Amino acid sequence: MRSEIVAAALESFHTQGYSVGVKDITDAAGVPKGSFYNHIGSKEEMAVEALAQYAATLGLAELADESVPPLSRLRAHFERLAGQVRERGYTRGCMLGNFAAEAADHSTLIRGAVAAGYDGWTELITAAISQAQHDGTVASQLDPVVAARFLINAWEGALLGARAARTEDSLAAFFTTVFDVLLRPGSGDGG
Amino acid sequence: MRSEIVAAALESFHTQGYSVGVKDITDAAGVPKGSFYNHIGSKEEMAVEALAQYAATLGLAELADESVPPLSRLRAHFERLAGQVRERGYTRGCMLGNFAAEAADHSTLIRGAVAAGYDGWTELITAAISQAQHDGTVASQLDPVVAARFLINAWEGALLGARAARTEDSLAAFFTTVFDVLLRPGSGDGG
Q1: Are residues B160 and B92 in the same domain?
Q2: CA-based nearest residue in chain A for residue B104
Q3: Do A17 and B155 touch (CB under 8 A)?
Q4: In this structure, are A10 and A29 located in the same domain?
């Protein structure tokens, strides 16, 4: 029953946001409302657990797979995420960004989980950028940590823009600006 | 009484999110709950009106002020917004992004208002970038509309990152990457 509640919570938080009611989650799981608190201490704790399960859908293992050239796997990572966004008709966004917007100001627990999620993701992108700089496929002038943080934020913002417009424009602006301009070697690299 | 309700709604939506209760808004305005619907048709309509008032705090008139050199006013615009974010201890974020995350999937009215807000802002930034390209202070290789959309999204994402970490890191990554790398002429401009 616990795993059904967590799965329902992940789906409910992602489609409805953090403000979704516990009863909506237990209804979606097909269990009585009271059973929620038998299994989980609080809605906040449930959100943190759902976020951990959500992170498993982001393809971070592929992003870390050093058998693939670093720039290729960086691009494939964002293409994979973009594919998910298109499948959902530009709705839902990213749960990290959603929780940052909805819950981070009010819950230290959720804010910490979102920050940790961003940090872990940033580390993997930092490594890919740094490796791509070594093989000459990404501009050497960029600080890998700063660029990684910027890329993740630009992605999260692109999801908001795509969600408002329900068009490809914000995703296209992300891919063009990041991969054709910002990361490209020779851009300001003295090249 | 109406203007008190709108002011309370703006503050409540910005600090608590779209899920804030109508009663919380009327309590903050110091008026009876019933008076809300005497003045405003729905919470959605209130959100759209609050968003319009919020837009007036973004300094768009200064961004459009062509007596100031275009790159200077573009930078001053984001510095002004960053100042507001720091004053609020990195909380609250931007109401456009918040409503995109919380309400755009569920309300056509709010989604339209957010998209219109983004579009108006994008137009002003497009104009500044285009003018800066003409005076040689921004890289000519960038498509001004694409770059403007990208910048706004990157900013909105930086606010989410700042909100999760409550540090300057995401804002610093935005300013460094945008103004020292992406917009700088000579970067990939054949320079």
Answers
A1: yes
A2: A164
A3: no
A4: yes
Whether B96 and B149 share a structural domain: yes
- The minimal CB distance from A160 to the residues B16, B91, B101 is found for B101
Rounded Cα distance between B87 and A132, Å, is 38
For A29, the domain range is 2-52
Q: Indicate whether A13 and A27 sit together in one domain.
A: yes
Hey, are the CB atoms on A163 and B105 less than 8 Å from each other? Answer: yes
3-state secondary structure of A123: helix
What are B6-52's pLDDT values in tens digits? 999 999 999 999 999 999 999 999 999 988 998 899 999 999 999 99
pLDDT digits (tens, 9 = 90+) for B83-141: 999 999 999 999 999 999 999 999 999 999 999 999 999 999 999 999 999 999 999 99
Alpha-carbon gap, residue A132 to A126, rounded angstroms: 10
Distances (CA, A) of A67 to A61, A63, A128, A131: 12, 10, 12, 12
Q: Which of B156, B166, B169, B170 to substitute to test the interface with A, most A CBs within 10 Å?
A: B156
The total of other beta-carbon atoms located within 10 Å of residue A83's CB is 10
- Tokens coding A26: 């237990």
Closest approach of chain A CAs to the CA of B62, in angstroms?
A: 23
User: Would you say residue A191 lies in a domain?
Assistant: no
